[in-house]
């Protein structure tokens, strides 16, 4: 199909019963967008996650106004974790570029670094939790703490989900007959998800930092 | 056929051969020619063992039936709970239910019916069964994720029902689960039942998100050649829009449930204000119960349309097929579905008029609520106009669809009362509200579900449902539900409060309500009995019903055009169907038969005059 794809809102103004439209429609390949199903799936998941995190931000802003809000300190380790997450995204991007060039050794190397950084970030977050709890910042003691634990836990769970797909992708590199196109596509989708999680982290961390 | 109507009609095929520019667009002058499908076929999972065929199936049709059976099974529990509540209300002297049991049953009945029956049945059941078939796809986009979706749903149901068997029993907080009372001593199940309820809802949302992902991607990207968005049957439009709504609305429920779980288990104060309970000061401080109400209803109102939109879509198809007439105003119907879906996110606070909100806030939400009546009314007019001068077949699906129109109109009109703040405030705690929402989102969608089951049962099993039992089921259900809910409107007007497990001898309660309560309960039991007959009909007809021919209703959409009926794994045999028209070419003048299936090429209907406007 060579014809330019219509957007969703343009296509709902078509008149399917008219002859000219009917001829065009017969030739339609049944896809709204010229992207793969998995990419649309990823976008949908990211949209749903964004809604979840936005609602949390709304709840946070609303709850902040109450008299009992006590701001929580940000341990310095959080800054290191943030740096790890940035590096993580950077190496995923490098892995994607290497995959596009079909440079296997580079892909493997970068993907391993990504996994290492991903798990380091999660462990780093757990250490932050441990430090805070040692200082008596419990979820029950103030709602600001509770928001912190909840945000980090949810963000961590999202990253764990990402690491599951990272594991599938990386292990498929070591199989005999993988399809390079499929692999490139997978790495690209994983990379997009990683960048998305970095953006989410910026929003959440920024929110807790500045309020 | 009148002369002017003849002029308005235009032969598609005739112009096709006379118009040379168009002809040159088609290779070799063959008007049926289509280039081959360039898409690679979907990778289908083929099961190898009994477990992967019958239990952990990845076939969307099978998952759809699994979803439907689980949802109906859960719904039956909800039905039994409603009988017990009605018996308690009619005969309080029997002492059938403790007050706490009454609240627990109200809560479980509400949550089961709205979430675990209606949502799961429309989207999980009909969605899974019909989306791939009607879109001309072999299966869902991600069959494995689809299977996980069903099993998360099963887990959610198990956790929900487990709360009946723990100390303290299920939660009695009402289906809205408002804090602080939901997790405070004095409410039934405040420490165990509520947590299981919240966990169950979280599991449901996770499972639904996996399913919804499949529905959206399949509908947008995996249709067959020629199936443009505007050639899709309205059923798919309804399910699609409802899924999009659910993907944006369920997160609000998830967020609310997560935060309340933490309030309950870890003692956080997201929603819990400083309070004294049973003479004791609790550890909570500063939380906002209203915040939960906002989150809940930001989910809760779209939820009404998550249930209603698939019903709108399905009933449009049933009416068109069984009246042998093109759906009136197809584009307007699509726009109305999309418009209602968008508007449904801006009306949530009309459920909170009595929460003490700023009156201007209520004014805004009353306005948006009344605006949503416009696209809804368009749909009702279009259904009626579809029937006008149609060749109406009084089959069971048609009877249920007609009953739906009347019932939905009825429930919708009382919605106009309750949408206005000044009218809502005195009525909001009375049986008027119970009558309203049962009419509009209980009975109306259920009637469509029944119609849809009578309609698609031959496709799923190869047999018709028994007509006589069906007629019995229809008339008892239709008249019976009016016998139940009409008196409740009156009870609401005279001020009978809802949520009370017993109406004591209060001087301000009319004595007529006591007799009415008994009448309503008897009607409810009779209607319930009709549902048992329906279930018997399903079991009997699935095993030894009257065999149905292929495409028994002479419908146009793709699900009836599979090589085998019931459709097999992969749905469409070797080649996917090619679509040449929308699903509504009924009673086309000049055509041999009164329907032209979507796959019929133009050359097969050369003399047919397809309407142009």
The total strand number of chain A stands at: 0
Number of helical stretches of at least 4 residues of chain A: 7
Percent range of helical residues of chain B: 55-70%
Counting helices, strands and paired strands, the structural category of chain A is: mainly alpha
Mean pLDDT across residues of chain B: 90
What is the CATH class of the largest domain in chain A?
Mainly Alpha
Percent range for β-strand residues of chain A: under 5%
State the separation between the terminal residues of chain A, measured CA to CA: 52 Å
- In the CATH hierarchy, what is the architecture of the largest domain in chain A at level 2? Up-down Bundle
Number of helices of chain B: 18
User: Overall mean pLDDT score of chain A?
Assistant: 91
List SSEs of chain A in N-to-C order.
HHHHHHH
Rg of chain B, please?
A: 26 Å
Largest sheet of chain B: 2 strands, antiparallel
Order of helices and strands of chain B: HEHHHHHHHHEEHHHHHHHHHE
What name does the CATH topology of the largest domain in chain A carry? Four Helix Bundle (Hemerythrin (Met), subunit A)
Multimeric status of the protein: heterodimer
Classified in CATH, the superfamily of the largest domain in chain A is Cytochrome c oxidase, subunit III, four-helix bundle
Helicity level of chain A, as a percent range? over 70%
Structural class by sheet pairing and helices of chain B: mainly alpha
Walk me through this protein's architecture.
The complex is a heterodimer of chains A (211) and B (613). With 211 residues, chain A is an all-alpha fold. Helix content of chain A is 75%, strand content 0%. Chain A folds into two domains: 34 residues, no CATH class; 174 residues, Cytochrome c oxidase, subunit III, four-helix bundle (Four Helix Bundle (Hemerythrin (Met), subunit A), Up-down Bundle). Chain A is built from seven helices and no strands. In chain A, helix 4 packs antiparallel against helix 7. Chain A is flat, with a radius of gyration of 22 Å. The model of chain A has no long low-confidence stretch (mean pLDDT 91). Among the domains of chain B are: 152 residues; 60 residues, no CATH class. In chain B, helix 6 packs antiparallel against helix 9. The longest helix of chain B is centred in the N-terminal third of the chain and has 37 residues. The N terminus of chain B is likely disordered.
